[in-house]
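Lecture notes, part 5. Sequence design as translation. It can be helpful to think of inverse folding as translation between two languages: the language of shapes and the language of residues. The source text, in structure tokens, appears below.
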């Protein structure tokens, strides 16, 4: 399993690196495609509860979140959400008339998925559009990878105390400490090496620390979705890794953390 993961990463990471460096419309298309695929996986997971989840609401929120950033129209977000909420109300009326038992639950699940994946995921594009966006994107993704890797190896070698046994039985507090330490150390060293305006070693360490501390929330949150429906992975798309949503779980939260820290304290 570890060998398969390594081989997939060996192929995928250079491709992601090239797309990040090129940026522009290519990067935006890759982001929206990845988020829509993650949205599809989410809808399939939630349908395993027996509730019909309308995917159009999830996809609509994802496209709205990314589109308003790409076209620099943040003022359209609120009316866009209002329209989608009205569409959800129409869906619930029509679905109940058709005899569906839980249209409110289905609409709520669809909207949650769109907000969770779309709103958090749109920060990937928002970071890339900042000055020095390619370097900042690589910095944040590197912090996620190092934090996750440190958690895996420290937890595997030293882990004894379970962190959340019902949600993720293999996660331990020792692994979590590795995640926090790995994120902090990477953030400090990478910020010092990158020489990005405003991104001091102190800011880098703080961002890495926050990603190490809070990135696990994304991982555990997605695990709850899978546990609730009895699924091991969000899909079988990526050999050795599961689905795309399994790879995006900590990335979504970490990029949101990194983006807001950057615009509030650095740029």
């Amino acid at each position: 399993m570890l060998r398969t993961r390594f081989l997939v990463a060996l192929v995928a990471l250079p491709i992601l690196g090239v797309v990040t460096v090129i940026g522009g419309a290519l990067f935006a298309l890759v982001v929206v495609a990845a988020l829509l695929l993650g949205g599809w996986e989410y809808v399939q997971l939630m349908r395993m509860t027996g509730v019909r989840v309308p995917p159009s609401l999830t996809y609509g929120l994802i496209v709205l979140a990314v589109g308003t950033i790409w076209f620099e129209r943040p003022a359209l977000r609120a009316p866009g959400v209002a329209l989608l909420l009205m569409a959800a109300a129409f869906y619930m009326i029509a679905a109940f008339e058709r005899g569906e038992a839980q249209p409110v639950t289905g609409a709520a699940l669809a909207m949650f998925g769109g907000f969770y994946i779309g709103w958090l995921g749109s920060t990937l594009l928002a970071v890339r559009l900042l000055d020095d966006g390619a370097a900042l994107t690589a910095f944040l993704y590197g912090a996620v990878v190092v934090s996750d890797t440190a958690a895996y190896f420290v937890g595997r070698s030293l882990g004894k105390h379970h962190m959340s046994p019902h949600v993720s039985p293999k996660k331990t507090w020792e692994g979590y400490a590795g995640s926090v330490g790995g994120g902090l150390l990477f953030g400090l060293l990478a910020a010092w090496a990158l020489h990005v305006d405003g991104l001091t070693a102190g800011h880098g360490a703080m961002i890495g620390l926050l990603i190490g501390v809070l990135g696990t929330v994304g991982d555990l949150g997605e695990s709850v979705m899978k546990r609730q429906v009895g699924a091991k992975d969000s899909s079988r798309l990526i050999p050795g890794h599961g689905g795309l949503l399994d790879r995006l779980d900590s990335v979504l939260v970490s990029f949101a953390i990194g983006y807001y820290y950057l615009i509030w304290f650095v740029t």
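The translated text above is only one of many valid answers, since several sequences can fold into similar shapes. The chain has one domain: 2-266.
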